[in-house]
Design goal:
The chain is built from six helices and no strands. With about 190 residues, the protein is mainly α. The two termini are about 65 Å apart.
């Protein structure tokens, strides 16, 4: 089971760390979303095998929850950034069709624009926090420590072989011999059959 845990965790960790190159590229919206999905997969894999490591994976699970939350918030803001302008265009057309003018839409536009700007600002804030957190994880060697835990758990505990002096003592130890009773060597005969 430990070998399976090692393989699964390493595979998911490798997938997740493959996104390292795009962490400093805020415009890579699709890749950041894929990184969130990868974080979720790694987190679930860690949760699955956590009982094999006692509390040894607790910090890594916490890090993965944090990564997943931040990347999820970034993605939500990215969705709003696409949706709000589309909604505004569609609503402007609906308003013009229904009222024959866009005058009533003009009252909605500032609030929608403000909401869009708030989402953009939130994204910038969360993204900066994610980059800082990511840099911290890298500088403290979080991922290397995880692989070290895996390696340590897989290394069997082997007792060292006995020293030569101990072997010699065991070989030359006296063997207790019991005397054999040779007085009655005749096989027992059943008196009923004989």
């Amino acid at each position: 089971m430990l070998k399976l845990a090692d393989q699964a965790i390493r595979a998911r960790l490798g997938e997740f760390l493959g996104f390292d190159a795009i962490v400093d590229q805020p415009e890579r919206v699709e890749e950041l979303h894929a990184m969130r999905i990868s974080a979720k997969r790694l987190r679930y894999t860690l949760e699955t095998f956590a009982p094999l490591f006692e509390d040894g994976l607790k910090n890594y699970l916490k890090a993965m929850r944090s990564a997943q939350d931040m990347l999820g918030a970034i993605h939500d803001c990215d969705v709003w950034a696409v949706y709000i302008p589309q909604f505004m265009d569609e609503e402007r057309l609906r308003t013009a069709e229904y009222f024959g003018s866009v005058r009533t839409f003009k009252r909605l536009a500032p609030g929608l624009s403000l909401y869009k700007d708030a989402r953009r600002s939130e994204r910038d804030t969360v993204y900066a926090a994610f980059r800082e957190t990511w840099a911290g994880w890298k500088s403290e060697g979080l991922w290397e420590n995880l692989t070290a835990i895996l390696e340590a758990r897989l290394t069997p505990v082997v007792e060292p072989p006995p020293q030569p002096a101990e072997n010699a003592a065991k070989i030359s130890a006296p063997v207790e011999v019991t005397e054999r009773d040779e007085t009655n060597l005749t096989p027992a005969v059943d008196s009923d059959t004989g």
